[in-house]
Specification:
With 682 residues, the protein is an alpha+beta fold. The protein contains ten helices and 32 strands.
């Protein structure tokens, strides 16, 4: 947009709506060109340049790789970008197939004009003679002196202005002028042009995990020296000043500004922002955010007709309620009420400036208790995976070994009785060494002191006990024939659980997949693909058993347990399971939400609302899931009475269905060929 003209000019439109990367749009040094990336039909991005003079866009890269982060060199002679040739499985950002997929990118330079030399032409590797080194040193000294004299003269006499850069691009045969820069490949999350011939690359791990925020490293590349130097790491955010002199970056909650031409010293350039305060007018903020929420729905909601809702009329109808708002919680209530008129799942309201509430961490031991003989008694102690930092069980650590049936008599020297609130004894003990007095008798005889480290949540320990209990029950009920796999979501947790539990039970005749309480995430194409792998061949060797290929498969029948608490990706997975004809669904109808969400502007106080934007429909042109869910083939309620008696009627029915299937359709047997005899007469 020209600020002197009211009419914006549309340069281009991306082909697909994807949250992976926004448009990377940059200006050329002379402001006559735009460079940007755009998705092609293969969902990979190519670099384009747009001429403001000709009002025309031209594709620079061939689209056989995923290109990102175009940048013009300050000289106007070159265009930099990164590209990946192993990004293919990751273009499906909504698919589980891209989980744990390594991505690397290399850096490239495009020589924009014919006749310009290569900026990375081969350098002579001949050793210089003593005289040549001396002459070169003298020449450099003379040049430096001359430059100093020239600068001084320019300052005194008013130096003549430098000729402005003009960018010219010759498109003919430009693909042959794209060169690889001598920069190691990495998973680059950004590239910035500094001063002439200088680049800054922001690098992430090649495979991303859930282990906290992504830790980035920043590297500086100088075309003159052709060397790459790491200048800072452990970074969350990074930006470069327009003139290339300074960098600003964030580590944790701290921001730093330093010079861009050298490695950063720890703590250098930290911004002292601890005493900053912002004064706000809440009612003015609430009014602005009310308007902003309606704009977000207007611009992002997948249906431009808003499910038949007159958006402007709804906005006007709810406007008077703003006058009665007295807190941020009231505002969220208003948002939830008004947005409910869109009648869609994944419509969420969250966050904002709320009163700060101090949380007191209470340590937990991973145990259930009974009250007996005036004391607390351990009724159940939950096992963990003490080799796993996320699943430490305080009472089963070596040297602790507390047993079910023993009494908890004291905590840090304080006597504990049945009339006491047990958790008050564990305030602020999470993650800290705590001394327990335990023993076999309520009177304390035979007791001992043990030191434990309580955890701040038992959820993972209790969840592990539920998973392992289900797995053992399926194994016992089926006589070892069936595998059991729980899928908590269709994101990283579900991906990790499937990989761990499914492949560890290869060799079973069939499988029970349990997706109850599935929290969703991505679309489970990866899981569905592996569940339906057929036997293709066998492998025989002199030593060991013959085995089937592909190895990573359970070839027999499968069923999936579903319930009303499984939704989103947990709706799509049983839907795909049924479409693929893998097996029956057992349980209750799922949640029914398949319009995905993500990448919205934050409200001004940090609050959020969603506008469901990626709507998923079936191959017959119908909304098969949204606001309905997936119906089971065999409906089974989770009867509370049976559950209290130690039963899981849905799990038990799934095993029954599988055993009936195995009985009716036993796994086929395959004959072994005779060894060949190519020389019978020898």
């Amino acid at each position: 947009m020209d600020i002197d003209s009211a009419a914006p000019v549309k340069v281009d439109t991306d082909l697909f709506d994807s949250p992976l990367h926004e448009f990377d749009v940059v200006w050329s040094p002379d402001n006559r060109w735009l460079a940007y990336t755009k998705q092609l039909n293969n969902h990979m991005r190519a670099v384009f340049v747009y001429s403001l003079d000709e009002k025309k866009a031209t594709q620079i890269t061939d689209g056989m790789s995923d290109a990102l982060f175009p940048n013009f060199d300050k000289s106007g002679k070159y265009l930099y970008f990164t590209a990946s040739t192993n990004f293919g499985l990751t273009t499906g950002w909504l698919d589980m197939t891209n989980e744990d997929h390594p991505v690397t990118r290399a850096a490239y330079v495009t020589v924009l004009r014919r006749g310009l030399p290569s900026p990375i032409a081969p350098e002579s590797d001949d050793e210089k003679t003593v005289d040549e080194k001396s002459n070169a040193s003298d020449a450099n000294a003379d040049a430096s002196q001359a430059k100093g004299q020239e600068d001084a003269a320019g300052k005194e006499a008013g130096k003549e202005k430098k000729e402005p850069v003009k960018v010219t691009i010759d498109f003919e045969n430009i693909s042959q002028r794209i060169l690889a820069l001598p920069i190691p490949e990495g998973n680059y999350f950004g590239m910035y042009n500094g001063k002439e011939g200088v680049l800054y690359l922001v690098e992430a791990p090649v495979v991303l995990t859930n282990a906290g925020p992504v830790q980035l490293a920043v590297q500086r590349f100088d075309m003159k020296t052709r060397k790459t130097e790491k200048i800072v790491e452990g970074v969350c955010d990074f930006a470069l000043s327009a003139n290339g002199d300074k960098i600003i970056y964030r580590q944790g909650d701290n921001w730093f500004i330093t010079a861009s031409d050298k490695a950063v010293k720890p703590g250098e350039g930290q911004l002292k922002a601890g005493d900053l305060e912002v004064y706000v007018d809440p009612r003015a903020e609430w009014k602005q955010m009310y308007d902003e929420v309606w704009r977000i729905e207007r611009d992002f909601f997948y249906d431009p007709h808003f499910h038949g809702l007159d958006l402007k009329a709804a906005e006007k109808a709810y406007q008077p309620f703003l006058n009665g708002i007295t807190s941020r919680a009231d505002l969220d209530y208003l948002f939830a009420d008004m947005l409910g008129n869109l009648n869609v799942l994944h419509m969420y309201v969250a966050g904002g400036t709320m009163p700060e509430v101090k949380n007191v961490k209470v340590g937990l031991l991973g145990a259930d208790y009974t009250l007996e003989n005036g004391r607390y008694r351990f009724a159940r102690i939950y096992n963990g995976e003490n080799w796993n930092p996320q699943l430490h069980a305080p009472l089963t650590q070596p040297g602790v070994d507390v047993k079910e049936g023993e009494y908890l008599l004291a905590v840090n020297g304080r006597d504990l009785r049945a009339g006491d609130e047990i958790y008050s004894f564990f305030q602020e003990t999470a993650g800290k060494q705590t001394v327990l007095k335990v023993g076999p008798h309520p009177d304390g005889s035979g007791s001992r002191d043990v030191t434990v480290v309580p955890v701040d949540s038992e959820a993972a320990l209790r969840n592990l006990a539920w998973i392992e209990g289900n797995r053992r029950r399926v194994d016992e009920m089926s006589g070892g024939k069936l595998a059991y796999v729980w899928l908590p979501n269709t994101a990283r947790g579900g991906y990790a659980n499937f990989n761990r539990y499914y492949f560890a039970q290869v060799g079973k005749e069939g499988a029970v997949l349990d997706e109850r309480f599935n929290g969703g995430g991505q679309l489970a194409d990866y899981i569905i693909d592996y569940l339906r792998r057929p036997i293709a061949s066998f492998v025989m060797t002199r030593e060991g058993e013959t085995y089937a290929e592909p190895q990573e498969a359970i070839y027999g029948p499968k069923t999936m347990i579903i319930n009303e608490y499984a939704g989103s990706g947990g709706d799509a997975m049983p839907w795909y399971f049924r479409k693929a004809g893998i097996g029956p669904l057992v349980g209750m109808r799922t949640w029914g939400g398949l319009v995905g969400i993500g990448n919205y502007p934050l409200l001004m106080d940090g609050g959020t609302v969603t506008a469901p934007r990626w709507a998923i429909y079936g191959t017959h042109g119908q909304w098969e899931v949204e606001n309905h869910g997936i119906d089971p083939d065999v409906e089974v309620e989770l009867d509370p009475k049976l559950v209290r008696q130690g039963h899981d009627p849905q799990l038990e029915k799934a095993v029954e269905v599988m055993l009936q299937s195995l009985k009716a359709h036993p796994l086929p047997t395959y004959p072994k060929p005779d060894y060949p005899n190519y020389h019978p007469k020898f």
